[in-house]
Every structure is written in C-alpha cells, then in structure tokens.
Design brief:
By secondary structure, this protein is α+β, with helices and mostly antiparallel strands. The chain has a single domain, classed as 2-Layer Sandwich (GTP Cyclohydrolase I, domain 2). It is built from 4 helices and 6 strands. The chain has helices spanning 48-52, 68-73, 82-93, 101-115; strands at 32-42, 55-64, 121-127, 141-147, 156-158, 164-166. Strand 5 (156-158) and strand 6 form a beta hairpin. Helix 3 packs across helix 4. The longest helix is centred in the middle third of the chain and has 15 residues, at 101-115. The chain is elongated and about 50 Å long. Residues 1-23 and 150-170 have low confidence and may be disordered.
Length: 170
C-alpha cells in the first residue's frame, strides 16, 4: 500500500531486506507499521438512522516510518506505538458525527500526523460493514493515502473539488 505503484518485477516484488537503504533524508523504501482490522463503533453517515444507532467500522492503517533504529535498539520509543495509533483512530471514529467515511479517514490521517512526528505518510482505509446499500455486498470502504506536508506539519486534503480543506484543529 505505502509507496509503490506500477508493475512488480518478474519473480515477485522486492522485499525490505533487498531494497536500497535510502538517502538519509527520509524513511527507506518499504518500511511500514501496519494495523489492520481495528473494529470500532461510531455514529456516522448521511442518513439520520445512522446517527441514532452506533454501527461498526473497521480501520486499517499503514504508516511509512524508518524502522532501522528501532530494529537496532529494540526500544519502543524508537518507533510508532501501534496501540497509540489505535487510540487515535478510536477517538476519531468515536467522536463527532461525520457524514462521509472519506472524512473519517482524513481525520484519522491528520490525527496520526499530529501525534507521530516520525510518520512520513501512509494509508488509512475505513470499512463500513453495515453501510445502507440495500443489496448484498462484500465490503464498502475508502482508501485514503496521505503525506506529511513539506513544512512538516499536518497537511490539507483535496476534498470533492472544494479546494484545500484544513484537517487540523477542527
């Protein structure tokens, strides 16, 4: 999910141990902290009935982080604590009602950037297992890739052609 795009070379992809070490100006390619299948409840959606009854949401997070120092020193303070990442996502999903899961994903990404300076970017996926689709479905989700802004602070998302929508401090 993080980084990449394009086709994999014949014979499979390049594993983290085979990737270049990077140029010292950011995380080496391929390093990630992942949290998948975080089950939460919230009151989000366009319909009033969705605001009345908490419903399940499932969150996946993949964060680009340079893990080399943590691997060397075996110290939690040298990496991103996935339990704290889970708390950020839980605070957003359990927080004020949002109409769109796109907005939930953006708020989770913004909270992660604000809480974890070591995170360069990543992807948040929000699944809505009980979305009011009216037909049987396997999954409804949004995938929200994000990057730390050039100035190193929370950045702005382009949302539905409305221009920059600030994500911090709402």
């Amino acid at each position: 999910m993080a980084g990449g795009g394009g086709a994999l070379p014949a014979g499979g992809g390049v594993g983290p141990a085979e990737q270049p070490a990077g140029d010292g100006n950011g995380p080496a390619p391929g390093f990630a902290v992942c949290l998948r299948g975080l089950r939460l409840r919230g009151r989000h959606g366009v319909l009033e009935q969705e605001a009345r009854r908490p419903q399940p949401f499932v969150v996946d997070v993949e964060l680009r982080v340079d893990l080399r120092q943590a691997a060397l020193c075996d110290d939690l303070s040298a990496t991103v604590n996935y339990a704290e990442v889970a708390r950020v996502a839980a605070a957003v999903v359990g927080g004020p009602r949002r109409q769109l899961i796109e907005t939930l994903a953006a708020r989770i990404a913004d909270g992660i950037l604000a809480a974890f300076p070591a995170v360069d970017g990543g992807t948040v996926v929000v699944h809505k297992p009980e979305a009011p689709v009216g037909l049987p479905f396997a999954d409804v989700s949004v995938r929200y890739p994000f990057e730390r802004g050039l100035a190193g602070g929370p950045r702005t998302a382009e949302v539905a052609g409305r221009g920059g929508v600030p994500l911090a401090g709402e």
